[in-house]
């Protein structure tokens, strides 16, 4: 354990480690950018969202759905290869961290694990 690294903000695990500019929790897999000046600096930690292949996503990116998705109330669903433009990163419910609008389906939230940067 490194005494200078903060515990995980999600599960409070104290065995966090550094990976490039991020701090990683080995128990829950949460990754975050440590706040400058310690945990009491008052600034919220930067949210880091990665796609299915590890690319860091940001607001306004275009992504491609990598696997077919079922959509409640829709007979067809979203096909793999569907391009989604101008995404917005959010703190979503149940791992849905991308807010977007998909042609033919409207506004919805997606998980970053089912898209890749396109």
Automatic annotation (TrEMBL):
Family, per entry: Belongs to the YjdM family.
Superkingdom of the source species: Bacteria
A Pfam family annotated for this UniProt entry: Zn_Ribbon_YjdM
Protein name in the entry: Zinc ribbon domain-containing protein YjdM
Organism: Streptomyces galilaeus
Gene3D superfamilies from the UniProt entry: 2.20.25.10, SH3 Domains
Protein YjdM C-terminal domain residues: 49-117
Domain Protein YjdM N-terminal: from-to ranges: 5-32
């Amino acid at each position: 354990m490194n005494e200078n690294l903060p515990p995980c903000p999600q599960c409070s695990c104290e065995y966090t480690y550094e990976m490039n500019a991020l701090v990683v929790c080995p128990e829950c897999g949460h990754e975050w950018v440590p706040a400058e000046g310690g945990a009491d600096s008052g600034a919220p930690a930067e949210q880091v969202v990665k796609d299915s292949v590890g690319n860091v996503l940001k607001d306004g990116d275009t992504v491609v759905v990598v696997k077919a998705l079922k959509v409640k109330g829709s007979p067809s669903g979203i096909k793999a290869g569907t391009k989604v433009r101008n995404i917005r990163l959010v703190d979503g419910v149940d791992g849905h961290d991308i807010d977007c609008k998909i042609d033919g389906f409207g506004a919805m939230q997606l998980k970053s694990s089912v898209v890749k940067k396109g």
